[in-house]
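Inverse folding, one chain.
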């Protein structure tokens, strides 16, 4: 193990759960956004922050420095798992919406989302006016 890795491990051993969470929160958010960019997935910032905070709390409680891994390594794998699960759930929900709309004969291929909420829709370029109440 390198001296840098050993010093990170020693520092992680001395931190409490709260200190681990606070120390790694910003890097966790950057890491999550980086992973999602790499996967070409868009997600609301609040959702990302929520997933990171939840994952940090779980990882900090379960972290055992005696196993030889730094907290950031341990946290990375937890975070990746939570993000994969969140993306899979969002994809499944989106697919269900598309199937439901097709069964009703609604053409949603021209729609695009606006803002941060999936519940807000706006028409594509071909539609001059559209109201969500028309659905």
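Residues assigned per position:
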């Amino acid at each position: 193990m390198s001296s840098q890795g050993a010093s990170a491990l020693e520092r992680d051993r001395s931190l409490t759960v709260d200190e681990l969470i606070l120390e790694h929160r910003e890097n966790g958010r950057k890491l999550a956004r980086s992973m999602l960019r790499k996967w070409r997935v868009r997600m609301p910032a609040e959702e990302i922050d929520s997933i990171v905070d939840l994952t940090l709390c779980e990882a900090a409680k379960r972290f055992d420095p005696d196993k030889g891994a730094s907290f950031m390594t341990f946290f990375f794998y937890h975070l990746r798992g939570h993000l994969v699960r969140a993306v899979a759930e969002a994809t499944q929900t989106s697919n269900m919406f598309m199937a439901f709309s097709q069964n009703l004969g609604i053409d949603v291929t021209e729609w695009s989302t606006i803002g941060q909420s999936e519940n807000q829709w706006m028409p594509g370029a071909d539609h001059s006016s559209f109201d969500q109440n028309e659905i």
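DSSP finds four helices and two strands in the chain. The CA atoms of residues 117 and 127 lie 21 Å apart.
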